[in-house]
Amino acid sequence: xxTRWQGWRNASGNAAATGWIELSHRLHxxxxxxxxFDKPDIRRRMSMPQDPFNLTEIHMVCHFGTHVDAPIHFIxxxxxxxEIALDRLCGTxxxxxxxxxxxxxxxxxxxxxxxxVVQPGDIxxxxxxxxxxxxSERYGEHPCLSVAAAQWLVDHxxxxxxxxxxxxxxxxxxxxxxxxxxxxxxxxxxxxxxAENLTNLSSLAGQRIEVMxxxxxxxxxxxxxxxxxxxxxxxxxxx
Length: 239
Fold this sequence. Notes:
- It is a single chain.
- The protein is of the alpha/beta class.
- It is built from four helices and twelve strands, in the order ββββββαββαβαβββα.
- The strands form three sheets. A seven-stranded mixed barrel has the order 4-10-9-7-5-11-12. It has a two-stranded antiparallel ribbon with strand order 2-3. The chain has a two-stranded parallel ribbon with strand order 6-8.
- The mean pLDDT is about 95.
């Protein structure tokens, strides 16, 4: 059957109509990754017209691209992805723009000064501007959080931290022998989820937001790829 594409039905085709902004990177095999991880294999297994339909196959770690870390990633008795309640993956929060130098350290003082003020149960997204480097080697020179900053988030009842870098811990090429991912341990042990490799945060910086981390529900997984979308919070949702 030679069926042709006829377009979307009942859709404006204008993202501004809903206000939702894409915060996740488009997956492709050459997207920046932690050097520890193998390069993913994303390929078309079947292709039209020689096959009756198109079929894509993906082989990759769960921590490639924009993704969410489950507590079990570093906490052996912590919840896996399928055990995370949906309300931990969506809700209201804030986007904070924090200017950083290469390999800079974000300390708790930066959070004290950040606006809007965080509220208990919020999601916090950090816009360091590093997403613009995702296609270059400089992406690996990203800033990180101090342990004190991670503890600040715990103390202020944040439920999820999202960052526009590979990891909120020290950059891989700066890690000393015996490095133990202290920021991950502080956050995940206290139920603060971590989302990494976000993008497109600049237009939401300094705003309260509504955000959804649409992570795959993978049984037993220590993390999952996620499509992340956010928009400015309405007056009702911000209360």
